[in-house]
Design a protein that fits this description.
The protein is of the alpha/beta class. 40% of the residues are buried. The strands form 4 sheets. A 7-stranded parallel beta sheet has the order 1-4-3-2-7-8-9, with helices on both faces. The protein has a 5-stranded parallel beta sheet with strand order 12-11-10-13-14, with helices on one face. A two-stranded antiparallel sheet has the order 5-6. It starts with a strand and ends in a 5-residue tail after the last strand. The mean pLDDT is 96. The chain is built from 13 helices and 16 strands. Helix 1 packs across helix 3 and helix 2 packs parallel to helix 3.
């Protein structure tokens, strides 16, 4: 039989196993479930399609589901967030996994579809674990014959919940959804503390630029934006918050941050990070007002928060790769 996985380097599996063993000590809830239900297989018969950031922590989740009796097939919900040694370890365990860091968007969709298909046919899945709604949307759009067998899904992120609520409003959503993002332990803790730290960590790893003394513009003051703003301030940055919701903007002021419309913040910022779940938050007029060397990034689920086609038009295609995962756009004025 052909191999039922695609990862960057299966030889990284041993490295992944070492990191997974460390992560297990940081995830006592899942480990307690393993201990309580050891040998009982309460998830026997569960056939779960998963589309989640394929990190070391997700590997602990996958192995917990399997140990509790579930069959799983997995892909990453993000083209950049996969930790390749985590994916390699899962593949080495004989679990279907399609994920690697640095995919194109087309490759990301291909990976999701490979989890849906087993031996060229739609797998007899009965549950979906999703992040962002891409897997759910693909099942609805391309494989509606699967809908009768799926009991429901869990959706873990703000963008995905918004997306699925829109589907439900239109009558397009064909099975129940557990909105994990609505849980207090998700948005209050994971979004604020987890995403706040991981976003800043990703920015520093990608750019290798000192944050202290820089002006850091946080676009959006939801739970993720709150966490990011606090952590950027903790690194010594001068934080400006932009927010269209008046109550959230007032909260940012009361939390001690400078709050401005994005058009006023555009000439001031050294870093801009969108965490809104909305579309074209940073647009053409903002690019034109930004200083030379401004760094723009997105922590929302989809990169449409930044109007990249507009940026490409302004640069006339004058773009180069300066570091891994960092591209430099030079506008017409230099």
């Amino acid at each position: 039989m052909p191999q039922d996985f695609k990862v960057k380097d299966i030889n990284q599996a041993n490295f992944g196993r070492k990191e997974i063993s460390i992560a297990e000590t940081e995830m006592p809830g899942l480990m307690a479930l393993r201990k309580e239900y050891k040998g009982k297989k309460p998830l026997k018969g569960a056939r779960i399609l998963g589309c989640l950031h394929m990190t070391i922590q997700t590997a602990v989740l996958i192995e917990t589901l399997v140990e509790l009796g579930a069959d799983v097939r997995w892909s990453s919900c993000n083209i950049f967030s996969t930790q390749d040694h985590a994916a390699a370890c899962i593949a080495a365990e004989g679990i279907a996994i399609y994920a690697w860091k640095g995919q194109t968007e087309e490759e990301g969709e291909w990976c999701i579809e490979q989890t849906i298909l087993k031996n060229g046919k739609p797998w007899d899945a009965n549950m979906i674990l999703d992040d962002g709604g891409d897997l759910t949307a693909m099942v609805h759009d391309k494989y509606p014959e699967m809908l009768d067998h799926i009991h429901g899904i869990t959706e873990e992120t703000t963008t995905g919940v918004i997306r699925l609520k829109a589907m439900a409003k239109d009558g397009a959503l064909k099975f129940p959804v557990m909105a994990v993002n609505d849980a207090m332990t998700k948005h209050f803790f994971d979004n604020r503390y987890g995403t706040g730290q991981s976003t800043l960590d990703g920015i520093v790893r990608a750019t290798n630029i000192l944050l202290a003394g820089k002006t850091f513009v946080v676009c959006g003051y939801g739970w993720c934006g709150k966490g990011l703003a606090k952590r950027a301030a903790g690194m010594g940055a001068n934080v400006i918050v932009t927010e269209v919701d008046a109550l959230a903007a007032l909260e940012a002021v009361m939390d001690g941050f400078r709050v401005l419309p994005l058009m006023q913040a555009a000439p001031l910022g050294d870093f801009f990070c969108t965490v809104t779940g909305d579309k074209h938050v940073i647009d053409k007029s903002h690019f034109e007002a930004m200083k030379n060397g401004a760094i723009i990034c997105n922590s929302g689920h989809f990169n449409v928060e930044i109007n990249i086609p507009s940026l490409e038009d302004l640069s006339g295609g004058n773009v180069r790769s300066v570091r891994e995962f960092v591209e430099e756009y030079t506008l017409a004025d230099g």
